[in-house]
Each structure stands twice: as structure tokens, then as C-alpha cells.
TrEMBL record:
UniProt KW Lipid metabolism keyword: no
Lineage top rank: taxon: Eukaryota
Record lineage: Eukaryota, Fungi, Dikarya, Ascomycota, Pezizomycotina
UniProt source species: Phialocephala subalpina
Record keywords, A-Z: Membrane, Mitochondrion, Mitochondrion inner membrane, Transmembrane, Transmembrane helix, Ubiquinone
InterPro entries: NDUFA11
GO BP terms: mitochondrial electron transport, NADH to ubiquinone
Protein name: Probable NADH2 dehydrogenase (Ubiquinone) 21.3K chain
UniProt membrane topology term: Multi-pass membrane protein
Length: 191
């Protein structure tokens, strides 16, 4: 049921799963190496795989599961939206919960991960706010924003007063008159 103006293009779920597995597996290897160096007993360098290797496996499984499920759901539903991310997050979180060996942990980790990832994707997928229009030049966009928020100088002066870099037309003359009245000093006009 895709809309008339947007045609869905299928994604390669297996390729995404392999990429996700490799990337998160590398991150798991780094975490496993850190765990291995922080052990009290001196374990050999192979301890990264033998002693704390489960961390690598969990990271790899979570990344692969998330990527495969997200794109498989998108292909089945023929839509790119936040629900795909939530479905992938639920299964990836469930893999995390399997480590504890109880059904409430599996469901709880799955639900938590689904909610967090789904909400993150729904809100634009960035912590810095909505994405800008990629077609508009950045300089032009900032000029447009400045024009949109520009206020007349008279309004600014009436609210803030003159000084501190804000000067209205005829400011130099008014300043010379004030100094002449108050202190009796003639200030020459700038040429």
C-alpha cells in the first residue's frame, strides 16, 4: 500500500545483517579486550576470546539481528518508517535479554530497546534536531533565517535603547548635543 508519490525500493537485508554483525562484532571485540585487561588474574592475550568472548558474540548477534530484522520488516511491509526500527530493536533487545535466561528479561530488554530505538528514529534520528533541507545551500538557508527574524531598528532601539553597538539614524548629532548640554564640551563632527 505505498502512496502514489513515493515508490518503495527493497533493501538487501542479508548484506545489512553482515555489515551490522561485523561492525558491532568489532565494537564487542574492543569491549572484550577492555574487560580482559581489567581482570584481576593475568590472562593471556587469548583471554579476549576465551574468557570474555561472550561479549563479542552478544554484540555481534545484537547488531546482526537488528539490521536484518529492520530491513526484512521494511521489505515485507514495503514502508520505511519507525515501526521497522522498533521491530528490529525489539528482537535485538531480546537477544540481550537471552543472556539472563528468563522470559521477563527477554521481553523487558526487547520492549525497552524497541521503545528507545523507535522513538529515536521517529524524532528524526538525531539528537541535534530535525535535518536541514539538503538541496538548499547552507549560506542561503542562514540568510533566509536572518531575513525571517529581522526586526526594524526603530523597534530594537525603543526596547533596548541606543548604545552597545545599536545606534539609530542621527545618533552622532544627539550625542554631541547631550555632551554639550551636560558638560559644555564641543565635540567635533566626524568627517
Amino acid at each position: 500500500m505505498p502512496s502514489e508519490d513515493h515508490q518503495y525500493h527493497p533493501h538487501d537485508a542479508v548484506k545489512a545483517a553482515i555489515n551490522g554483525t561485523l561492525i558491532t562484532g568489532a565494537a564487542g571485540g574492543l569491549v572484550s579486550a577492555i574487560q580482559n585487561t581489567l581482570t584481576k588474574r593475568n590472562v593471556s592475550a587469548w583471554g579476549v576470546f576465551t574468557r570474555t568472548g561472550g561479549t563479542i558474540a552478544i554484540f555481534s548477534a545484537v547488531g546482526g539481528t537488528y539490521e536484518f530484522t529492520r530491513f526484512a520488516a521494511a521489505n515485507l511491509r514495503e514502508r520505511d518508517d519507525s515501526l521497522n526500527t522498533a521491530i528490529g530493536g525489539f528482537l535485538a533487545g531480546s537477544v540481550l535479554g537471552l543472556r539472563f535466561g528468563s522470559t521477563p528479561a527477554v521481553l523487558g530488554f526487547g520492549a525497552l530497546t524497541a521503545i528507545v530505538l523507535g522513538a529515536y528514529d521517529y524524532t528524526g534520528g538525531a539528537l541535534t534536531g530535525p535535518k536541514n533541507n539538503r538541496e538548499m545551500d547552507e549560506f542561503e538557508r542562514k540568510q533566509e533565517l536572518r531575513k525571517n527574524r529581522r526586526r526594524p531598528i526603530e523597534e530594537t532601539i525603543s526596547e533596548l535603547g541606543e548604545g552597545r553597538g545599536i545606534y539609530g539614524p542621527g545618533y552622532e548629532e544627539r550625542r554631541r548635543e547631550r555632551i554639550k548640554e551636560k558638560y559644555g564640551i564641543d565635540v567635533p563632527a566626524k568627517s
